[in-house]
Design a protein that fits this description.
Length: 164
Amino acid sequence: MPSAVLVGREAPDFSLPGDSGKEVTLRDLRGRNVVLFFYSLSWTEAAEAELRSLAEVCRDLEGLDCEVLAISVDSSPCQRAYKAQLGVDLQLLSDFQREVSGLYGVLNEETGYSQAATFIVDREGTVRFQLVNDGCLVRDPEELLHIVRELERNRRSGRREIKT
């Protein structure tokens, strides 16, 4: 399925099992900014590098009242083991049925894996930022931090668009 532009639209709602065993529902996070960080597979060099970098800015994102959800098609038990091995404090969600990757238009039908994709959802549930690539480009968590800071500045000033 080709990636659709979701910016400016309501984020598709979902519920997925987390590595803690609890179900996480996007709708329940309204009132907070949310980073949806899709990655192809656990136990890969690319995932390890990106998740470790993302974990480094998590505390700053949490300080901006932002929830970070890392999503892959791996099973919950696989993600629990992977998280323990990485030693990162991130929520890893299992899209084992590939429904959420499909909803967001980032499922690679040939491989059955998610593309490397990031969506930032604002406090009202609107997608404000989207980045999708084929996995060849390493995403910069500092960019995500910058965008969430801008969202918060804009919210406080009453602006709806991001000025960068």
